[in-house]
Design goal:
The chain is built from 18 helices and 27 strands. With 520 residues, the chain is of the alpha+beta class. Strand 5 and strand 6 form a beta hairpin. Bound molecules: glycyl-adenosine-5'-phosphate.
Length: 520
């Protein structure tokens, strides 16, 4: 049985505090005492979230010839969720306290009390383990009920009649609306197998125990792709270059989990050859997503692939790999990547009575394509980028978010040393000249040291200071967030220099005359 890693959760609390203090994330409805499982993105958080979404959409949709997007409704026809299997099967194991009525997820209870993973257990296994270890309510030490299934879908009534026949569900995944739009996309968007349909947007799950800040929410966002492939061509992937095959990653296979063995670092090519990863398209999509994370600055050592055990697989999945991130509270899923076969299209054919098959012009066959599904949770990605960027820099006595410039809410801070003698006006002039090219933050309040400290905490990669020399020689001081080093740059070349620095095609110290600053 896999041991659950338990590190101190202080870091997570510190990050949650920072997020609130610096306008990234607010507990939702805090004026009413908050609302468990719901968080709102504040002024800086919403900028960073947009950057994250834009980066994902650009990379996986706009810059690809084989993926198109949709943006569908979040409340759907109830038959969608009957056909998909969610009405019957989308549940978590729940136990109730017989004394205080507290409800807890059985797997979380076991994980917390015994430090073991209970992924994929049957109700009987939960009941046995709870009885064997005499586990009691974590709140009041009361006796616990037998484990039962709890459906996670939120429902509502559509129209003015609130009876059974008017129940509709808030989508628990964005994926189904891709399947229901499959035929419309094929008929209108000039797509040809293999191709993907992507969607980002809200999903809702009535989680029994929301927890770990943004990790387990009741309302969250997903960025999903259903990538459709001819059923016999799951190993015909044209993108398996040497770079993909030689890419090394930590893999925790189902076999290693069963044998209680550690994950192993291996090349994707090896994992394909040894059939650890079942199909080439699956391996390719795992590579693509891992590299999206890495290119946006995540430490690759904190990423790994974990295969779902057979009895842990969702009802639609024949093979599933999670990308896990090493959170302060252990290795946890930030991305799910499933081989859904043709389960969903087949179910929608059956329940809607519509022909959702695809005519393959190359093979002259009517087929129901198979699907590899890279499914990204936006909020979990956001959280992992935040945690990875968070540094308590003891040497410089500061907290700094070393966010990749693409993700940083602002790219540039513009700080006049003082407001008087024309410095503020010069600062505003620079802001006006750069604001269309970069998200800039102008601030002329408080000491320059405090403004730098604040900008470090919100991850602004570069700040420029306007001082009395600026008024004489037309240069400004540009400060690098990560090293705190400073250079002098002419205003006339600021745009070019910033572009190159943000694109990481120019080294900071080669971008201008270095200023020697005293260490504290
Ligand atoms: N369409 C497949 C699907 O929804 P999933 O593994 O249930 O698969 C995919 O979810 C991703 O959505 C997860 O890897 C995670 O990033 C995110 N996610 C799922 N439940 C979540 C929750 N309660 N709070 C935040 N993110 C969640």
């Amino acid at each position: 049985m896999a041991k659950v890693e338990k590190e101190k959760v202080e870091t997570l609390q510190n990050i949650a505090n920072l997020c609130k203090r610096r306008a990234f994330i607010f507990p939702s409805c805090e004026i009413y005492g908050g609302f468990a499982g719901f968080y709102d993105y504040g002024p800086l958080g919403s900028e960073m979230k947009l950057n994250l979404k834009e980066s994902w959409w650009a990379r996986f949709v706009r810059q690809r010839e084989d993926v198109v997007g949709v943006d569908a409704c979040t409340i759907n026809h109830p038959m969608v969720w009957t056909a998909s299997g969610h009405v019957d099967g989308f549940s978590d194991p729940l136990v109730d306290c017989k004394k205080c009525g507290y409800r807890i997820r059985a797997d979380h209870l076991i994980e917390d009390a015994l430090g073991i993973s209970a992924d994929g257990w049957t109700l009987e296994q939960f009941n046995e383990k709870i009885a064997e270890n005499k586990l009691l309510c974590p709140k009041c030490k009361g006796d616990l009920s037998q484990t039962r299934k709890f459906n996670l879908m939120f429902n509502t009534h559509v129209g003015p009649i609130e009876d059974e026949s008017h129940i509709a569900y808030l989508r628990p995944e964005t994926a189904q609306m891709i399947f229901t739009n499959f035929k419309a996309v094929v008929e209108t968007a000039r797509v040809k197998l293999p191709f993907g349909i992507a969607q980002m947007g809200r999903a809702y799950r009535n989680e029994i125990s929301p927890r770990d800040f943004l990790f387990r929410l009741r309302e969250f966002e997903q960025m999903e792709i259903e990538y459709f492939i001819h059923p016999t061509k799951l190993n015909d992937c044209p993108y398996l270059t040497k770079a993909v095959l030689d890419f090394e990653v930590l893999i925790l296979s189902a076999e290693n989990q069963k044998a209680d063995k550690e994950p192993e670092k291996m090349k994707l090519g090896y994992a394909i050859d040894k059939k650890i990863i079942g199909t080439k398209w699956h391996a390719y999509w795992l590579y693509e997503v891992l590299n999206w994370f890495i290119d946006l600055g995540i430490n690759p050592e904190k990423l790994r692939l974990r295969q779902h055990l057979k009895d842990e697989l969702a009802h639609y999945s024949s093979e599933c790999w999670d990308i896990e991130y090493k959170f302060p509270f252990g290795w946890k899923e930030i991305h799910g990547n499933s081989n859904r076969g043709n389960f969903d299209l087949t179910q929608h054919i059956k329940f809607s009575g519509k022909d959702l098959s695809y005519f393959d012009e190359d093979t002259h066959e009517k087929i129901v394509p198979h699907v590899i599904e890279p499914s990204q949770g936006l909020d979990r990605a956001f959280l992992s980028f935040l945690i990875d960027a968070y540094v308590e820099d003891k040497e410089n006595e500061r907290i700094v978010l070393k966010l990749h410039p693409i993700l940083a809410p602002y790219k540039l801070g513009i700080f006049p040393l003082v407001k008087k003698d024309g410095l503020a006006e010069k600062g505003k002039e620079i802001f006006e000249s750069l604001k269309k090219d970069f998200a800039c933050m102008y601030d002329d309040k408080g000491s320059i040291g405090k403004r730098y400290a604040r900008s470090d905490e919100v991850g602004i990669p570069y700040c420029l200071a306007i001082d009395y020399d600026t008024m004489q020689d037309g240069t400004v001081t540009l400060r690098d967030r990560d090293s705190t080093r400073q250079i002098r740059v002419p205003i006339s070349s600021l745009k070019e220099v910033l572009k190159a620095l943000l694109n990481r095609t120019l080294e900071f110290e080669k971008a201008g005359a270095l200023i020697e600053t005293r260490k504290k």
